[in-house]
Amino acid sequence: MTKPAAPQSPRDTVIVPADTAPFRKFIDSTTMLTIGRFAWPVVMGLLGYLGAVQLNDLKEGQKNGLSELRDGQRQVWAQVSKMTDAQAATNIVQGGLVAMVNGAVKQLDRLQLQVDGLQKH
Question: Which of 13, 35, 80, 91 has CB atoms 3.0–4.6 Å from 9's, for a disulfide?
Fold first, then answer.
């Protein structure tokens, strides 16, 4: 013989253990109700406080990181400024040297013309 199928309960039905179940007695005890009412909110508050402290430490670390980044940028721009000044000085010296070389080339051309104009013996 086959055993008849147990009736199916609706989907949103909550199955509650019997009053004589050992775990049910523990849950319904005054101790568990006291823990649930007073101790659990304290534990949750403490966890929230510790999380906030760690978050503040993280924010402080981020602030320190940003200040280090700013200091690094200042140092980079100071070096870039020094490099730009050195490049400008080099360009000025180079421009002066080019002018001197061009003047010397013109003088050599004039001397060459004068030498070419001399009579040969």
Answer: 13
Residue 5: pLDDT over 70: no
Count other Cβ atoms within 10 Å, centred on residue 63. Answer: 10
Q: What is the DSSP code string of 24-57?
A: HHHHHSHHHHHIIIIIHHHHHHHHHHHHHHHHHH
- Whether the CB-CB separation of 13 and 19 falls below 8 Å is answered with no
The pLDDT, as a whole number, for residue 73 is 93
Cα dist from 80 to 68, 88, 89, whole Å: 18, 12, 14
H helix count then E strand count, the chain: 3, 0
Domain boundaries, the chain: 23-112
Q: What is the pLDDT of residues 66-82, one digit of tens each?
A: 889 999 999 999 999 99
